[in-house]
Every structure is written in structure tokens, then in C-alpha cells.
Amino acid sequence: MSDLPLLGAGSSSHYGASDRSRDSLVLPEHDEQRRQMVEKRLLRKLDLRVAFLVLIYIMSCMDRTNAAAARLRGFEEDLGMTGNQFNSLMSIFYVGYLLTQAPSNMFLDRMTRPSLYLSSCMAIWGATTVFIGVAQTYHAALILRFMLGFVEAAFFPGAIFLLSRWYKRNELGFRTALLACGSSVSNAFSALLASGILAGLDGTLGFTGWRWLFFVEGALTIVVAVSAIWILPDFPSSPSVWLLSDEQALAKQRMEEEVAAGNEHKGTTVEGWSGLVEAFTDWRVWWLGAALILMDASLSFRIFFPTLSATMGYNSTITLLLCAPPWILGTATSFLVARHSDATGDRFWHTAGPLFVAIVGFMIAISTMNTAVRYLSLFFMAQAPVAHVVSLTWVMNTFSQSRSKRAAAIALINAMSSLGYIGSSYFWPSRWGPSYVNSYVMCILTSTMSIVMFWAFRRHLSRCNEAAEAEEQALGLPQGFRYFL
Questions:
Q1: CB 133 within 8 A of CB 44
Q2: Backbone angles phi, psi at 482, to 5 degrees
Q3: 256: which of 63, 214, 298, 342 is 20 to 30 A away, CA to CA?
Q4: Spatial distance between the Cα atoms of 297 and 137, rounded to a whole number of angstroms
Q5: Are 270 and 402 in contact (CB under 8 A)?
Q6: Cα–Cα distance measured from residue 445 to residue 287, given in angstroms and rounded to the nearest whole number
């Protein structure tokens, strides 16, 4: 591991931040050079902990999508599913996911040991995954999928909020991408893992391969959850054995500076449960939530990726192996897009760009049934999920002034986005295959509508920045808070 953090410590950006002097140091005897040294050590240690969050998110995505791989080896037939019941099974996860996110994040904001809370939730959803493997009826699997979503909902918005409590606004984009890349990594390597389990363990101890898929992946999740108790970071205000005293002090100071910069000329901060009320009454939360509903509806192809790969006519093992390369490329480009977004301070074009690329992929898939060309279209589609990453970073940047409101806004917007998956699970009925032209058309429409909403939001923030600049010039004030665009 390099001695350098993921982003240069101590670097500053004029995007979305105050130009205030950094003369306020951690301790009086520390000069700026000393602060940068401590900050570099802090970020290096923290980045290693964040890497473990990525592993947890990989397991989370594997456990929520493994039913799509199980479908290729008798999952539907063994549980007696007919019609749209498999689509309902995929959709019900997001119903549970929707219900828990906001209350969980508000609860997390008031905790001192988020590491214990998140790892406990992980162990529970791992056990739930194992139980799906022993389900004998469709309705039993449906109930367990709902419970899985109900418990898993604590992790991703909680992890995003945890990052926002440690990293500054110009550092968040790449770290958020690092976390969210777990989804693409999971899509790639869960397919490889599933192909091995389904082919290698089928019939072992009298269990079919798809049951072993749930057993193995659920057990792995429980093992990772136990390790997470000691590895995940808590909040900067909580004592940490892995930080030196000057690193701990600087971690708290950095967040105090961020809050101060965001509230300059704006009065006092909003904390406590009133942050939830503030988030509910802020129209921007609902606007961004609606935009993400549309975006996630357009990304619903991720849930059915093995099904789309299967339309090329190969057996289940090759079908799952073919799922990996598009997501490996998608993971690599996610890092590049997110890092460039942080470097330039731009959010809109780094959100809209990947969606435009996905639209090209949808159009290619609509235009032909040629095997090679349709496989190429999957590579274009796999570029889209980074748009979700950048948009969530934009959410954190926009609501950075209040810790409590930020926690509520992240959870509410992410919960609302789950509605996109609930409805779009029915974009892909079997009767529309193997071409799925209607499905791709719906993805194109929802992508386009999402881009338009984000563009309108960018125009609003631009006007807010212009108004703030005019006020500062009129009153002779130093440059203060600016929104990322």
C-alpha cells in the first residue's frame, strides 16, 4: 500500500468550499506544514478502513442480487413461481429497503459506536440470506427477501453518512466512488462465484446448486460482519485506538471547519431530530429524490443482468462468466469519473455523461439481436452506475451545513430512489424477452427525464451561487460557501 492517501491530504479546492484562511490549526504550536503531515497520516489510516466498507458493500450487493443467478439453475421451478412472481420477489426487497433507511440514519447520527450497529445489521442479513436457501415455497422466500431489504437498508446510507463525518467536501467524491464501486465489483465477481457454486456444489449433501449459493454467500457475509466490529471506524468524536491523539484532534477540527464554512453568514446549525424536519420541508430533497427514482429505474437492468446475458443463448455457466467483463470495465471507469469530478468540482456532467453512455447501450440492444453487438451493448450499460455515485456525492455536498439534516437528507433521498427499483422490477417480464425492446425503451425514457431534472437543479444552484457572490461583493465579505455544480 502506498504511503499516499487516495487524495492528496491537505489539498484545497475552491469548488464548493470557503476561501477562508486555514490559520485555525489543530493546536497552537502546529504550523501548516505539521498539519499537512498529520492530515496525510489520518487520511491514509482512514482510507484503509474505508476499503473494508467496500468489502461489506460487495457482500451486500451479492446477497440482494444472487436470486438472479439462482434463477438460471431452477430457483423459480423449485419454488413453484409463475407469471411475474419472480419480479415481485426482486421488487419486495426494495420495499423493505425503503422503509428503514431514514429512521436508521437518524438513529445512527445519535450513536457513538456505528461500527457495532452496522456490523450487527450485516450479521442479521447474512443469516437471512442463509434462510432463503432453505425456503420451500415462494411465499417463504418473499417474506425473507422483504426482511433482507429491511435490514440491509441500514448499511449503504449509513456508510455514506459515516464517510461524510470524516471527509471534507472536496474529498468525498472519490471515497464515495470507492464505496459504491462495490456494486460493480459484486456484479462482476458474484457472477464468477455463482458459476462455480452452481456448477460445483449442485447435489452436494442433497441440496441443489442454487441453495448452496445462498448458503455460501450468507455464511461469508456473517464472517465479514464479525470482523467488521473491530475494523470499521466510529465517528471522529468517539475515541479511536487506531488514531494518535493529534490525528483524532485534527479529524474533529476538519469537520468543525466544514460546518463553519457552510454556515458562514447563515446563523446557527440545525441539529438533533429537527434535522429530519428540515429535510422533510426542503423541496430540494424531494426534487433530488424524484431524479434518483428515475435514474434507478433506468439502472434496473443491473438486477436482471444475468437474464440479459442469457439472451445470447449460452448455457448458465458461460452466461454468468460473460457478466464479469462489462462490470470490470465499469468499475475502472467509475474511479476515473469520480476522481475527475472531485478534481474539477463538477457534478452534473459527471452524472449526465454516464447516463448518456448507457442510453447508447440501450439503443444498440434495441437495434439488433446479433450476439456480439448485444454483448457490446452491455459494456455501455455498465458505465451508468457511476452516475448514481456522483449524484449521491452531490447530495452530501449540497446538504453539508448541518450534520443532522445531512443524515436525514441522505437517507430520505436514497430511500426514495428505492422506489425506482420497486417499480422497474416489472420492466423486465419474461414475455418481453429475448429482445426486451420495451424494457430498453423505458430505461431510455427514465434516463432522459433524470438528466433533465438534474440539469434544472444545477441551474438552481448556479443562481444561488451568483446571489451569494453578489451579496458578498455588496457587503465587502470574504468569499464563503459555494454549491458544487
A1: no
A2: -135, 140
A3: 342
A4: 28
A5: yes
A6: 18
Q: Cell match 449540497: residue?
A: 398
Amino acid at 142: L
Residue written as cell 413453484? 80
Alpha-carbon distance values, 158 to 147, 194, 263, 392, 472 (Å): 18, 28, 24, 13, 36
Residues 316-334: pLDDT tens digits?
Answer: 788 888 888 998 898 888 8
**272 CB-near residues (< 8 Å, 6+ apart):** 404
List pLDDT tens digits, range 181-216.
788 788 778 888 888 898 889 889 999 999 999 999
Task: Report the distance separating Cα 159 and Cα 42, nearest Å.
Answer: 18
Q: Tens of pLDDT along 59-87?
A: 998 898 888 888 888 899 999 998 889 98
* In contact, 76 and 307? CB cutoff 8 Å: no
Q: Say whether pTM exceeds 0.70.
A: yes
